[in-house]
Amino acid sequence: MAGAHNKSIANVTAAIVISLLTGCASPRYFVDGGLKDVDVSQIERLERPRPVQLLFAFKIRGLVDTRTSEALEAEVARVVTTSGLFAAVDEAPAAGGAILNVSVDFLPDTGSEVSRGVAAGLTLGLVGSTRKDPILCTLDYIAAPAQDKLTATAEHAIYVPLGIIDARPKGIILAKSRVDAWRIATGQSITAGLRDLSHSPAFRQQAQTP
Amino acid sequence: MRASLLCALVALAPLAASAAEPLGRHRPSLESIEVLQKSSVPPLATGEFTVASGAAIDDTNGVSFRMHKRVPARGESLASYARAAFVTELRAAGKHDPAAKAVITGMLVESRLDEGSAALAVRIQVSRSGQPVYDKVLRVESNWDSALLGEVAIPDAFNHYTELYGKLILQLFQDQAFIVATAR
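Structure tokens for the assembled complex are given below, as produced in the milestone run.
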């Protein structure tokens, strides 16, 4: 009886080790706190905003991820609309031809993933580490066809802890899931980019009707 | 026995194949919009998109990679996914008109996703008032270093595959023969 119990414990231990070795033991996702205080109230409103065509793509390592883009597009449209910088926001071409092209590029640092996952697994999770996955958000505003782009960028990051010992930096925000982390980071990055655009004299001139 | 089964499930869960997931709606690109806006291409209609007879394409079952599968939206096929991609790009550039005299149709000739390689080929035909004015097979390919880890390799592979639709459409919009044929 005791032998069977010990065998069960050994099996469970082995299963947990294997699970950790695969690096897939229910990862948690945290959003960097650097942009958490960015708010729509920091965006300088325009008196006579123009409508804009919104293009959005969420990318992973520079490649458009259609599935995630679709999951986040409603949130992106909401953030751009509530900025108050545009009279109307739509996927279709806008009167006057203005375009806001939003690209959010997720650049995960997966190069050393295997060695870190194995280190955490072999030590039963005692060797903790935290992967930082940068996000680069680029907003291009084009007031009319053939006109030069006005660009604003915002840098963000998502953290994925590995192992039991907490090696997380301070001030990061726990997300419900990876997509939720992307949603939070995308919304904050775009708000930061729109805030910077709204303070640009060139944007303020081009994004308003005369 | 029950403990062993539980252990096996815990260990294998991360490795298990997931169910089929949607391909995700094609995203219009700024580059395609700018190319179309600068060209003399008039508004176009989109006709039927099908799979060429004899082409080794599992039209309704999407694409697979390492036991993961991405499928077009319910009731759609890869051919209709290609058509929807064309409509999306034309509409975003203000060049889609279902009543236009010039109509684009397509025939999937190749649709492939392998380890570190993907390809898409479509025979594009354009007719004006029923008369053929353009007929060409366009092909795009992508090659990359496929990662060992599924977490990296699987989304990369599907994203390389879906990007081919945008590349192929851009190739068409930049084709001088297409621009001349549609502008006549």
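The helical segments of chain B are 2-12, 30-38, 78-92, 150-174, 176-183. Confidence is low (pLDDT under 50) at residues 5-17 of chain B. Further analysis is deferred to the final report.
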